[in-house]
Write a structure and sequence with these properties.
This protein is α+β, with helices and mostly antiparallel strands. It contains three helices and four strands, in the order βαββααβ. A four-stranded antiparallel sheet has the order 2-3-1-4.
């Protein structure tokens, strides 16, 4: 069953964040992730949401694959590069069975 990684980023240093993006993109590809949304425009339609500065949605084949990606040495390097550059909220949700 597919799983969707949602990441909300608040970027403090856009230049340094580029290193994180390159490392994260390579790790996502290595573990079979596919970007569905990557920092595009967003709008609140209902409720008290605060529009994120940057929202990313990535589809993986399974929740287990997301965990492999997240715990991988490749993504740990990306997280290290992001330290002090951006704040990140991240969650994963399973999709519906096909």
């Amino acid at each position: 069953m597919a799983a969707y990684l949602l990441a909300e980023a608040r970027v403090g240093d856009a230049v340094a964040y580029e290193t994180y993006k390159l490392l994260a993109q390579a790790a996502i590809a290595r573990y079979g992730g596919r970007y569905l949304a990557r920092g595009g425009r967003s709008a609140v339609l209902e409720g008290n949401w605060t529009p994120p500065q940057r929202l990313v949605i990535v589809e993986f084949d399974s929740l287990e694959q997301v965990k492999r990606f997240y715990d991988s040495p490749e993504y740990q390097a990306a997280r290290a590069a992001r330290q002090g550059v951006a704040e990140m909220n991240m969650l994963v949700v399973e999709g519906l069975p096909l």
